[in-house]
């Protein structure tokens, strides 16, 4: 369930944001064109898939000359418009707080999340591939950018792996 608060001065809103900041719950929050999206904390199952993806993708990424970061990072150029994927593969030289692009971003679908709505943002920021792991479907969608859109592919052009092979290697919760 989504909640939209149109009045940024609504009573209690600043207190809620401060509680989230103090507890660390805001680390996954995103700003979409100036609009704050408060993202729930990931589940244990989400974290288990993330760990497996780190173990499976890391060696393949390094063999391809890419740097794996299977942990959240800020994709965008400022705090006014950014997304926080669950991980990614970067070309050499990536650094800092803001990543204007990535070779590949990883998203793990959670209930009621906005994974699929992030695709236009990723395309606009030149992300070559998007890997979407869906625990409910027990499937992996591997997308490659074609212009300003993504299309499903049977094999990554970046690393030696495809969605079916990866899905078979994951011990789904």
Q: Which helices and strands occur, and which strands form pairs?
A:
Elements: H1 13-23, E1 30-32, E2 35-37, H2 44-63, E3 67-69, E4 74-78, E5 81-83, E6 87-90, E7 98-99, E8 104-108, H3 119-124, E9 129-134, E10 139-146, E11 149-152, H4 163-169
Parallel strand pairs: 4-7, 8-9
Antiparallel strand pairs: 1-2, 3-6, 4-5, 6-8, 9-10, 10-11
Short descriptors:
alpha+beta, six-stranded mixed beta sheet, three-stranded mixed beta sheet, 25% helix, 27% strand
Largest sheet: 6 strands, mixed
What is Rg?
16 Å
- Strand portion, in percent? 25-35%
Number of strands: 11
Could you estimate the helical fraction of the residues in percent?
Answer: 25-40%
Unreliable residue runs: none
User: What is the N-to-C succession of helices and strands?
Assistant: HEEHEEEEEEHEEEH
Structural class: alpha+beta
Q: What's the overall geometry?
A: globular
Helix run count: 4
Strand order of the largest sheet: 3-6-8-9-10-11
- Termini separation comes to 23 Å
pLDDT averaged over residues: 93
